[in-house]
User: Fold these one by one.
Assistant:
Number 1:
Amino acid sequence: AQSVSQHNHHVILSEAASLELGCNYSYGGTVNLFWYVQYPGQHLQLLLKYFSGDPLVKGIKGFEAEFIKSKFSFNLRKPSVQWSDTAEYFCAVKGGSQGNLIFGKGTKLSVKP
Amino acid sequence: GAGVSQSPSNKVTEKGKDVELRCDPISGHTALYWYRQRLGQGLEFLIYFQGNSAPDKSGLPSDRFSAERTGESVSTLTIQRTQQEDSAVYLCASSFAEQFFGPGTRLTVL
């Protein structure tokens, strides 16, 4: 069965620090990859997605992610975090003929002002 | 509408009661998904509707769970004889290419 692993449960950073959240998936075929964000009290929003093409994907709010097929990874990065980035971040994969997304357990990011 | 809507936003029920949760997808989205998010966990897939095809029910945790969707419109998720472990946020998403999520229904079973 497909699975998604997010390595960090809770990350605490100071403002202006750089961020990298790890995501690895298990499916060996063609995949669509996503990062969703859930701000406190709000619903899930799409941050960025990879379907094909350039493996470095730019998303909203200065986030980016790099698809490395050989490592089955899709890590999320931001060069300089802000307090407003405090949220929970979910990596998800959609592979093959499946319709639904498989989600990781999420990483909670706390940014100290 | 502008986004996926779900109702009710919160539901508190007693163990053993049936509950019905509603999802209004984005107009024109052919696919509709239900997920469950338990405290401290990621999203768990429940069921997937694609157009008029038979739904993918592979994620439903027990036969107490069922869902319906008429055409490409509203969907209802029904949980019969609720148990305390059913307490979670139930999320609906609709999709044409990428999935857009609703705000969820927080279900608490006492």
Number 2:
Amino acid sequence: AQSVAQPEDQVNVAEGNPLTVKCTYSVSGNPYLFWYVQYPNRGLQFLLKYITGDNLVKGSYGFEAEFNKSQTSFHLKKPSALVSDSALYFCAVRDRQNFNKFYFGSGTKLNVKP
Amino acid sequence: NAGVTQTPKFRVLKTGQSMTLLCAQDMNHEYMYWYRQDPGMGLRLIHYSVGEGTTAKGEVPDGYNVSRLKKQNFLLGLESAAPSQTSVYFCASSYSGGPQETQYFGPGTRLLVL
């Protein structure tokens, strides 16, 4: 069965410090991996995705994510956090056989303090 | 372009009542999706459509019906609402069903079933 795990319900970081939001997955074959962000009372917004190629993917707002096949992880990172980055972050995965369906993690709330 | 819009934004129903949630997109996307978001569970796919006149079941379809009579609209119906259907409902669309495709989300509909 497909699954996506975000082991941390909440991540706290000080503004200016680097941040990491963790995601691991369990999907047969080679997955397609996505990160979305959700601000309060808004829909999900696309941040970045990994399809193939370079394991380090760069996305919107200075975010990047590293695909690690051996560890089946796709952690979201940013070198210097902003207060405005505070939001709910979702990791999502698709597999090649059943790509009509997204499987989402439970979400990680990122709190960036001034 | 408005992107993906959802109507209504908020609704309160009594158990047993029916209602229809409307999703509209102006991006000429073929694929449309309905998700529900519950605390600690991320998003779960209810139904999806791969084109006008087509629908398919997702992960949690029971208690819901959908229709895609026009390409730009995807309706989600609750025939007899239950408290377990209290949730936030998100509609999404994508240009195609390819695994690399990004889904674009609407702002959500908050539904409370008493």
